[in-house]
Amino acid sequence: MGAAVGRQLSEAGSRILWCPVGRTAATAERAAEAGLEPVGDLADLAAFSDVLISLCPPAAAVEVAKAAVETGFDGIFVEANAVSPARIRHIAGLFTSGRVLDGCVIGPPPPKKSGTRLYLSGASREIDEIAGLFAGTAVEAFTIEGDVGQASALKMAYASYNKAVGALAAVSHALADAYGVGDHLLTEARRLARDQLSDPGYLPSVAARAWRWAPEMEEAAAAMAEVSLPNELAMGAAAVFERWNPDRDNFEIALPDVLDHLRTKDE
Q1: Quick one: the chain helix, strand, coil %, rounded to 5?
Q2: Are strands 37-38 and 51-54 parallel, antiparallel or unpaired?
Q3: How is residue 145 annotated by DSSP?
Q4: Does residue 111 have a cis peptide bond before it, meaning omega lies within 30 degrees of 0?
Q5: The pLDDT of residue 205
Q6: What is the pLDDT of residues 20-58, one digit of tens each?
Q7: How far is 182 from 190, CA to CA, in rounded Å?
Q8: What is the pLDDT of residue 85?
Q9: Tell me, what's the pLDDT at 267?
Q10: pTM metric for this prediction
Q11: How many whole angstroms separate alpha carbon 38 and alpha carbon 70?
Q12: pLDDT means per 10 residues in the chain (267 residues)?
């Protein structure tokens, strides 16, 4: 993702630097292909840059931010990793300059037909500057009103569905394969037409039927355990459904109430 985003900025006329210290030959090859210019070390990268964009595995996000702080960097730091709102607030607090933007990348590495979007929250002046860098590229920049944390909240909400779907699909296919019913699963899967993330109006009916679905998920978990498959996602789904037990057969429940009933209430 980093090299692909860098290529977009480079082709748009920006000078894009990167630090090869400690990086692999494969990373260096991607950077060269993307038109990124190497510098001697991280201190040089910070000294010659007005903007630093952090795009790395989320587990390394704080380490990268701390390294940037140690260089004395006082430009705009765009934290564009998949981190929680609390994590980005912690990262923002590391910078005395206060010029930190919260970024959320949704979509595949550009350019792809489906498009790549960069959501930004934080100070509007800095957002306008960063959005301007991406003007005319395959990365669309969007502003989310509010301070740092808002863009990351969107990323977490989207990723919690989008990434979990992959895990769910893998376990479902492994379960079907273990019992020799994989072809039938594919037949039924291809008949599915509803994307529930884009159709929240469907959720009240989910809540109304959840009292029946929790036990079903427990049975699915048992079937997975029988063939040595991970069943935590199924048990987690059962726990979610159980929170809707008081909404049994209430198909008239309003969507805000459906969502509210998922929250843990203070005793």
Answers
A1: 55, 10, 35
A2: unpaired
A3: S
A4: yes
A5: 92
A6: 998 999 999 999 999 999 999 999 999 999 999 999 989
A7: 12
A8: 94
A9: 45
A10: 0.87
A11: 20
A12: 94 95 92 94 95 93 95 96 94 92 94 85 96 95 96 93 86 93 92 80 91 92 92 93 94 93 75
pLDDT for position 114: 64
Q: What is the 3-state secondary structure (H, E, C) of 71-138?
A: CCCCCEEEECCCCCHHHHHHHHHHCCCCCEEEEEEECCCCCCCCCEEEEEECCHHHHHHHHHHCCCCC
Which amino acid type is present at position 138?
A: A
* Half-sphere exposure (Cβ direction) of 239: Cα atoms closer than 13 Å: 8
Compute φ and ψ for 78, nearest 5 degrees. -100, 105
What is the pairing mode between strands 37-38 and 139-143? unpaired
Decide if 222 contacts 168 (C-beta within 8 A).
no
Are the CB atoms for 221 and 238 separated by under 8 Å?
Answer: yes
Q: What is d(CA 17, CA 161) in angstroms, rounded to the nearest whole number?
A: 34
The first and second tokens of residue 61, run together, are 């996000």
DSSP H helices in 135-231: 150-178, 182-189, 203-226
* Distance separating alpha carbons of residues 201 and 199, to the nearest angstrom: 5
Cα–Cα dist 72/64, whole Å: 13
Chain center to CA of 100: 19
- Going by C-alpha positions, the residue among 216, 261, 252, 258 that lies closest to residue 237 is 216
Q: Is residue 69 a contact partner of residue 95, using CB atoms and an 8 Å limit?
A: yes
Each residue of 57-74: pLDDT tens digit? 899 999 999 999 999 999
